[in-house]
């Protein structure tokens, strides 16, 4: 459920963005850096890739950040607060791409890659989201601001699952559940808001050669018509990649959804691209249809209708 409260983005807002070196993160970082009054904390594993943002150096703070390191996260947040005194928008965008046959994860090398994906895509986001809530509630009021916004980038892969990306979905579904839960924990007077960003096909370096990691192929799925091979073919097809939405347009919509929150509450989910919106609609319709099919069996386990667990959750959290 989205927050029913509005959020007024400060004129001198401080944006903290992970994964700022390319794609959506870079597009958003460039937009914030070019804004005449906003301030930017841009992070990347190798901050030398962010040198192009230094033209607005007084309002831009660049930090090395490996989101799999607790110490690095703590230090980055402390550095941002030392520089600007607060954080208004936390954008968790950093990610690690891994595809391939799920059975390959049973091999030692495959298991290490799978764990790295969950550590980066889930735990990095979770740690920074927790830091953000603390900063929004306890630190921002010291400079006259109350609250803030967490934007967690999951992709449509946080809402629907596809072949050959099981651990990616495990991490991104985890981020969606984590974000929903945390959004229902915070008190309204803290003025803290969450939004899940779900881009569809977007032109970034995430899937380019050298940036996407792969499990070693499993012989049981070697056939060209195996579902995973079909999806890999689509992702690696340059002609298909040319049809994807420019990352800058996705970044622009992310900025807009925060800027417009002064007049309409942030949604808990924001699918970006027509394809992502349609996938979410189709997935919701499919779940609704399946619920109708299993309704009789689902309700048959009740004895006398005295189980009030579901009603409690509906009454309190929806």
TrEMBL record:
GO terms for molecular function: oxidoreductase activity. InterPro entries: NAD(P)-bd_dom_sf (IPR036291), SDR_fam (IPR002347), SDR_oxidoreductase (IPR051911). Gene3D superfamilies: NAD(P)-binding Rossmann-like Domain. Keywords: Oxidoreductase. Belongs to the short-chain dehydrogenases/reductases (SDR) family. PANTHER family: SHORT CHAIN DEHYDROGENASE, SHORT-CHAIN DEHYDROGENASE_REDUCTASE FAMILY PROTEIN. This is Uncharacterized protein. It comes from Xylaria hypoxylon.
